[in-house]
């Protein structure tokens, strides 16, 4: 995988307070299934629930679901209006303290939020946000902030689908949705949107970034490929009879569906580009068109006539990255005329696969450090298979 930096996008950074409030009201909460999977995966790989940092938090959509599970929680977003919206109804942590929100980019966390000390964060989340980050800098900052054994959890949604079992004339309805996404929305996507569309299959990970500077690379090396997990929900719109989308809406009016879709950055770019044409009646609004064609498709069959609601949702991917954990022990022996120090350190990282690291460091110091010898031996055993689960 080659290193790619997502195109910088200011759609959300330049939001006015009213736009941020509207965005928050139309963004549905992340589902319990996802939140539980994030927490369970983090805990099952040695993570704790003391301190949370939600990066690219926007108006706090994910923060609200996660913060009550932690003793301390912070949110960071580069958009001042988004942070203002998040602060208006700040969630409460398990300790009873409100979440603190800060204006910061993902790569500037260390300098922008002095309240968070290095090595104190248990879980860093990025909810539908990592595709906008400068990832090398973000990973390096995360490596410094996380405790050993801490986690990064990043997720995003992919293409939209109708429920194939409950939607009248479902094949035609899905074709209409696909056509809207491909012909109307896709031309207004940037690299970050495309990374989402592909469910982060091409998102750079710490071990795929090869051209970082030495300091950044040191941070990247703190993460272990063997413990990486990629968990996919409803890929390709797949559902079993009676099953619901993990990230979806049941019996949602088409008007509400339109409002939810209006928060997508490609839709906002389309509307900016066609504002005058829509106002003059020369072009139909892209989401008005979506509602119209979906209604028309459902109305082609008897059970869909007059229906103004739909069951639908999207595919969803969760990536979990673990910071390495080290357990060290040391013993010292004083010999006549010498200080002999033998330090044996064993780092045991268990994150899906097992990694064992053994270091032996022996130093002999005589008088005023007249002689010194150092020997380091490092061995690895690795299950480097990346774990991918489809749910």
From TrEMBL:
What InterPro entries would the database entry show? Diverse_substrate_MTase, Methyltransf_25, SAM-dependent_MTases_sf
> What domain of life is recorded for the organism?
Eukaryota
- Look up keyword Cytoplasm and say if it applies: no
Q: Which GO terms describe its biological process?
A: methylation
Residue span, Methyltransferase domain? 53-150
Swiss-Prot/TrEMBL keywords: Methyltransferase, Transferase
One Pfam family here: Methyltransf_25
The UniProt GO MF terms for this protein read:
S-adenosylmethionine-dependent methyltransferase activity
PANTHER family associated with the record: METHYLTRANSF_11 DOMAIN-CONTAINING PROTEIN (PTHR44942), METHYLTRANSFERASE TYPE 11 DOMAIN-CONTAINING PROTEIN (PTHR44942:SF10)
Task: Please give the name of this protein.
Answer: Methyltransferase domain-containing protein
Species assigned in the record: Mytilinidion resinicola
